Amino acid sequence: MNILNHVSQHKTWPLRLAILCTLYFAFAGTRADDITLTVQAPTTVEAGDQFRIRFTVNSQNVNNFNAPDFKGFEVIYGPSTSRQSSFQIINGQTSQTSSITYTYVLIGSKPGTYTINPATIQSGNTLIKSKPLTIKVLKIGTGGANLGQQQSSSSSAHRQGGQSSQPTSPSSNGISSHDLFMTATASRTNVYEQEAILVTYKLYTLVNITSLDGKLPTLDGFQIQEIDLPRNKEFSLETYNGRNYHSVVWSQYVLFPQKTGKLTIPSVTYEGTVVQPNRNIDPIDAFFNGVSGMIELKKKIATPTLTINVQPLPNRPAGFSGAVGNFSISSSLSPQQLKTNDALTLKITINGTGNMKLINTPEVAFPKDFETYDAKVTDNFSKSSSGLTGTRTFEYLAVPRHAGTQTIPATQFTYFDTQTRQYKTISTQPYTIHVEKGKGDASSAVSDFSSNQQDVRQLAHDIRYIKTKDVSLSPEEEQDRLHSWRYLLWYLIPLLLFFIVTFIGRKQIQDNANLAAIRGRKANKVARRRLKQAERLMRDHKQNEFYDEVLKALYGYTADRLNIPQEHLNKDNVQQLLLDKGVGSELIDQYLGVINDCEFARYAPGDPNANMESIYGKAITLISQIENNIKK
């Protein structure tokens, strides 16, 4: 019997421990500094409709709750008090939450905008206040009955997995364009080239829509960036053309116009699914027979078209970076004291909002005896309603070869300011660098001619002073050398090799004299080798590396074929040089278009694989066509 009692007690001790923990966390108090009183209510309701307002405090160690006077509203019910408590233990870490919610049901009779003052609650000697709340009461609109009441019961519509739900309104067999439609608005319709435009698609509905599918397609003349909006769509009441609708911003896009003139954003067709009661089925029969009393209807919603007037940028000044927006510049240099053959790093950061992806690399005027390398570009920006916001950092690596004090002048950055409609030039600070002589500095040789003797003084170790003492050979030694067959071979063999190399490689030497021609002949072959690498990246679904490789192929081909350094390439001089080579203007526009597509395709909507295949095919075709035009 004692053993059974012992086992029984042994089995119930975890239950007792859990009960004690529950009681402890249920009555444990929260610090007054951490206690908050929040308020939840719809921001817009319709006159005559009921809605709920909830005050929630995140602790149960409170008392003396005082509600506001609710001026402008009639209190139908309340307060209703509910308490919630929970605790959990995970990996020995214990957490506990508790709250009290006070709920009121109100009704607004007169249209207008009303402010509900803060509610208060006592926690020890501390008085906790909620925030004031502004609620707009709309007048009863035609066809908008009961919308406010439905909104009060559920202040937001949720969208999960591409679907949204919304409070039910009176059903109808037919859904007209006045019951369900979308609007399209542009933040501005008169812009400059490359200036960001925010296009907003907004949904208005009087019916219960459960899903909506559609997307802005790729547009000719625009680069598109879709704004990331919350997946859970929150509807609100809004008066539109005298009627009250549930409305929500469904999608937003930032567009960068790439051409000038009147550009059209076409109509976009969305397909929505609407759920309505099935009037052909008796609700009681449907309930007992297990048949749904609701019916789904498909509705196509077409948005209006938009016209954008795009003006060309004014006369571009020298050194224009291609940036359009609002920017600032900063820089840093590390280290500022070093030895020869040691590397230094100069970082230039462009910060702001605009077409960040099209900013060219600023040119830094390093001293001539510095060995420099291509700048590393790091992007850290996000999509916003004004364009791309963030930073683009250029990291330059340089190696000084000579000792002394060197100066890196200020680097200028010119952009087009969309606020002042003018070009602005900003610059970094100049830097003074102290370079000391390093070990084994073979490049620091200088020539020093003194008045007493002329010799070369080499500061490294590979060349010694020229000896000034007389050196002579005896006649016997000279005679032996002249009659030696080995001595004669030293002259005959190089002479013979010279004639052989001259005879065999004469044509090759003539061809190699024209380095530009060799580079031009190999341009097509080098470009196709890079495109083969891009094809492998496409198959591996490496989107960013694919577009970088295609850009290298296009820019590399142009630089080799036109015999100009790649760092001197830009869209304006490429266009003129290709025209001089006899390439048609339409083909040049297609070539520049593919470059623009590569620069923005990683942010473009649609199927990434389809975009890569399209750009890959265009690149191969354009290089072949340009090659044929130049040969002709």
Mean pLDDT: 77
Question: Largest sheet at a glance?
Answer: 7 strands, mixed
Structural class: alpha+beta
Helix content: 25-40%
β-strand amount: 35-45%
In total, how many beta strands? Answer: 33
User: Whole-number radius of gyration?
Assistant: 39 Å
Number of helices: 11
Distance between the termini: 110 Å
Shape, please? elongated
Low-confidence stretches: 1-11, 22-29, 143-173, 442-462
Question: In words, what does this structure look like?
Answer:
It is a single chain. By secondary structure, this protein is an alpha+beta fold. The chain contains 11 helices and 33 strands. Strands 24, 26, 27, 28, 29, 31 and 32 form a 7-stranded mixed β-sheet that branches. A hairpin with a 2-residue loop joins strand 18 (236-240) and strand 19. 24% of the residues are buried. The model is unreliable at 1-11, 22-29, 143-173 and 442-462 (pLDDT under 50).
Please describe the topology of this protein.
Blueprint: H1 2-27, E1 37-40, E2 44-46, E3 50-57, E4 63-66, E5 74-90, E6 93-107, E7 112-116, E8 120-123, E9 126-129, E10 133-138, H2 147-153, E11 159-160, E12 163-164, E13 180-186, E14 190-192, E15 197-205, E16 209-213, E17 222-226, E18 236-240, E19 243-257, E20 261-265, E21 269-277, H3 283-289, E22 294-302, E23 306-311, E24 320-334, E25 337-339, E26 344-354, E27 370-372, E28 376-384, E29 387-400, E30 404-408, E31 412-417, E32 422-427, E33 431-436, H4 475-482, H5 485-504, H6 506-513, H7 515-539, H8 543-562, H9 571-580, H10 585-600, H11 608-631
Parallel strand pairs: 2-10, 14-23, 24-31, 25-33
Antiparallel strand pairs: 1-3, 3-6, 4-8, 5-6, 7-10, 8-9, 11-12, 13-15, 15-19, 16-21, 17-19, 18-19, 20-23, 21-22, 24-26, 26-29, 27-29, 28-29, 30-33, 31-32
Helix pairs in contact: 5-6, 7-8, 7-11, 8-10, 8-11, 9-10, 10-11
